[in-house]
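From the thread on structure requests for the teaching lab: each student submitted one protein with a one-line request. Submission from student K.M.:

"Model DUF2550 family protein from Lentzea tibetensis, tokens only."
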Amino acid sequence: MGITEIAGLILLGVALVITYFAWRRIRLLREGGVHVALRKRFDDRGRGWHLGVGHYRGDEFAWFRVLSLGTGPDEMLSRDGLEIDTRREPTGPEAYAMPAGATVLRCRSTGGEVEIAMGPDALTGFLSWLESAPPGRSIPWAS
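Reply posted by the TA:
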């Protein structure tokens, strides 16, 4: 097998991976997803953010990382016990990794702390989802 065939196979593999990522992102968004950036490790330099798509699944918010080969959610946030600690605007170096006009929420739950960043429309939907609750269930502090 010559160098041309090897280079062709490598290019074909790269094209297939890019096509898969594009197809996955479009599929997640068409199923009612919203653009959300998330990080679990906090860094003052603005590092650690991952772009993804979030889905509301009843009492859970499922987050799928955009650049992932996995088929399931990478993070699940349960509405029970989820509270927003702080709300802020993105700082200079981290703004590149977030949706346009994003607001950053530092949330606390039974699984630990997480920061999520989303645009104004997605934020309104997230806060509405967080504050809504079936009758008889307590509503966590959400704003």
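TA comment: Residues 31-131 form a domain with the PH-domain like fold (CATH 2.30.29.30). The chain has one domain: 31-131.
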